[in-house]
Amino acid sequence: MHRAFCPCMPVILLLAAAPAWGLELKASGHDSRIDLLWKGTQGRYHVYRSDKAEGPFERLTHEPWRLAVYSDFLGENGGTYFYRITSLDTQGVESTPSNTVSASSYAMTDEQLLTSVQEATLRYFTEYAHPVSALARERLGSGDTCTSGGSGFGIMALLVGVERGFVARQFAVDRLLTMVRFLDTCTARYHGAWSHWFNGATGETIPFSQYDDGGDLVETAYLVQGLLTARRYFDRDDPAESEIRETVTRLWEQVEWDWYLGKPPGRQLYWHWSPRYEWKMNHRIGGHFNECLIVYLLALASPTHPIPRECYYEGWVGGDGCEYANGNTYYGHKLWVGWPYGGPLFFTHYSFLGFDPQGKRDRFCNYFENSRNWTLINRAHCAANLGSHKGYSELCWGLTASDTPGGYQAHDPRNDNGTISPTAAISAMPYTPQESMATLRHLYHTYGRRLWGPFGFKDAFNLDKNWFADSYLAIDQGPIVVMIENHRTGLCWRFFMSNPEINPMLDRIGWTRE
Predict the structure, then answer these.
(1) 322 Rama class: left (phi>0) / alpha (psi -120 to 50) / beta
(2) What pLDDT digit, counting tens, does each position of 341-386 carry?
(3) Could you say which DSSP state residue 199 is in?
(4) CB 198 within 8 A of CB 188
(5) Can you list the pairs that 167-170 forms with residues at least 24 positions away whose Cβ atoms lie under 8 Å?
């Protein structure tokens, strides 16, 4: 375990200092909605709207609103509306209103709408970042509980924000400096690996389950994937960006991937290690295709603690590959590797946010084509709708892991309870651009009044139960921003793949490029 002194207090004072009540309310028009942003801590507010500058103003918030962003989904275009907000003190007394602002909704092209969705979704990682560490909270309402993997996704989303002009480069540099300093000096690490959850104010590990109170190698890999992408993106010769690169390199080199082969070391990585319970979780990674490919690729690429090249086929694939390979055709689409009918769609997202699968294959398949067919199988299953779920069609599809009416679950064609998760189809956009765009528009325009909120699409919905989630999860929001951008420009693929450790690793384990 590694943990150094954590100089958090100055950061708390810096990030939590509230501006005077000027709020600087701003409004921006989008397709079918108007978004409001203002400066403020996470206090309590009321939002008001009128169709006339002079009022009267109608209150939109039934309960005090606790965010500094609000999205008014109108469901129509062409209208101009006026807004103002108030704050509430501890006794619930409202302040005088803020300045009045206005905006108009308007029909957007596909490209405009993609930009709009990315901008709104990124706010989860900018407006809702932890005020001390700037890292990603696990979900809306999780307080100090931050997630290592979701933070890695958020880092990549932040780079997209710079490229798209949603945030200034200096803003992103300052945020990332706060993150990497906190990861370096405050968070508990276990042979270089981070825990799944940690306290965003202190860095202390928050157990994910009874025996999972130590290093989580999979979540660590997602975080490192984001850090390495940022290391290449922030390439300017100035002190701040140099510090980012140096700190990321140190963090990357301190992860003891080879430790997680167990004691004595074998050929297969373990997901968890705890100083209290050691290998009690006994969760080996590999043997069938899932979300963990990036773990092996990074472990093999490590410049300081690499695992043997044989671990790719003996550990990740699991020997002869009988369970890893598939080779069957479902709904007319061949699946080379993966579960029958494919598993949850996040299996095809998380490892490929930075790692570019285009034209790359091992002895089993081209992983871009496999992910494309996996997605098309998922879509075809929902269109066939053998379970008679409400709303399912060629436009309403997407089974992955998300919240459901009964709690967080993973969904796929063999475990389908009628829950659709917007992140599933939208994050598949590099593989199925036309199908994913059509579904994005369908979900947005058909269900937007209940499915859209301050950070974009909410986590999931189930029409059988007439249920729409109120939740946002970092691991579902991040891939939306990143994979839309990989479809549009390949941004995160390009910068992650430019790390000098990656392509030699692929050559060493026998991957080819088509």
Answers:
(1) alpha
(2) 999 999 999 999 999 999 999 999 999 999 999 999 999 999 999 9
(3) E
(4) yes
(5) 167/122, 167/126
